[in-house]
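Reply to dn_fold:

You asked what the input looked like. This is it:
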Amino acid sequence: MKKYLLLSILILGTGLFAQASEAAIVATVNDNIVVTLGELQGEIRTLPQDQMSIATTKEGVNQVLDAIIRRKLLADKALSFKVDTVHVVQEAIKRSREIVLADFLAMNIQMNSNSEPITEEQAREVYTQNESLFYSPKEVDLKQIVATSQDEADKVKAELDQGKKFDELMAKYPGNPQGAKSGNIGLIAVNQLTPSVVEVVDKLQVGKWGGPVQTDSGFHFLYLISVKPSEKMDFEIIKDDLIKQITNNRAQEALDGYLQTLVDESKITLDNSVLKEAILPAQPTGF
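and this is what came back:
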C-alpha cells in the first residue's frame, strides 16, 4: 500500500488472532496516523457473519486494514477542515457515543443472561408446549395484473370476463413503471399479504383469478397458480434454530427487564408540542 508502512502482520493460519498486545501498531500513515492491532481486530469483529471468512487470509485482512486507513485519512482531512465544529457533526458524534455505550452495556446484560446454555430437553419442552407455533405458514404462488387507474381496471375486468388469457393481459397492462408491475409474484406466505389481498386469495381456486384489489400501487387482479399448505415442522430439523431463538429471547427479556427498571426509576417529561414537530407525513403503502 502506497505511503503506508506495515509494521506487523497478523498470523491467521488457524483463524485465531496472534497473541500480541492490542496496542501494537499494525500500520502508520504519514507519521501522524496509526492503526493498532486492537482497532483492526475490533473492525474484523464487526464484519457481518457471511463476510467473516475475509479475515482468514492475509489478503482479506489487508482489505479490512485498507478500509480503516482510508477512513482515517478522510477523518484526518475532515479535522483539518474543522468539520468537527459543525453542529450536525457534533450531534452525530454525540449520538454515536451514546450508541456505543448503550450497546456495550446491553451486550453484557444479554451475555450474562445466557451463562447457562439452553439444552435440547428445554428446547423440546418449548416445542411440545407450543405446538401450534411450529407450523410453516401457508404459501400461495400468484401472478398479477396491475391496472394503474379505475378506468384501466374496468377494461381488464371486462377482458377477463370475456375469457381473455391472463398472461396476455399481463403483457398488455404492464402496471406502474415506478411501482407494482404485472407479472409473477412467486411463492409467498399468506401472512405476508395485506388483509384485503388475503380476503381475495382465500376464495380462489387454483387456476382462477380474483380482484381487483385496490392498493396505493394500483388495482391488482390476482391469479392463483398453486397452494402450499401449512405443515408442522419437525423438531430434529429446527432444534438448533429453536435453541438459538430461546437463547436470544432470554437475552432480550433480560435486557427489556433491565431497561424497564431504568425507565420506571427515572423521571421522564415529554413536551408534546415539540414532539409533534418530529412526526413525518404518512407514506403510501403498496401491495
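The chain has three domains: 4-85, 87-134+233-287, 136-228.
Hope that clears it up.
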